[in-house]
Amino acid sequence: MGSGYRHDEHQIVYAGRGVLAVTTDAGSWIAPANRALWIPAGTVHQSPSEGTTGFSRWGNRFPGL
Questions:
Q1: What is the mean pLDDT of residues 2-16?
Q2: pTM (two decimals)
Q3: How far lies 51's CA from each of 8, 19, 21, in Å?
Q4: For position 29, what pLDDT does the model report?
Q5: Domain spans of the chain?
């Protein structure tokens, strides 16, 4: 996959506008507008964007997960 980044917390990334793409060593996922993706803590990933994209990101430790 090349270089990417990771977070210490789980994340939910919501695509409010456009298309969100996330790539990990396990595969690639696409979320169209009004959909979300779950990124587990510690997962090395890339999330390139093209054009106009609006997204929100929530991070939390989500106890028990």
A1: 84
A2: 0.71
A3: 28, 9, 12
A4: 93
A5: 10-60
pLDDT of residue 32: 87
Single-letter amino acid code for the residue at 18: G
| The pLDDT value given to residue 24 | 93
Measured from the Cβ of residue 63, the count of other Cβ atoms closer than 10 Å reads 5
- φ and ψ at 54, to 5 degrees? -120, 130
Annotate 3-65 with DSSP letters as a single string.
S-B--SSEEEEEEEESEEEEEETTEEEEEETTEEEEE-TT--EE----SS-EEEEEEE--TT-
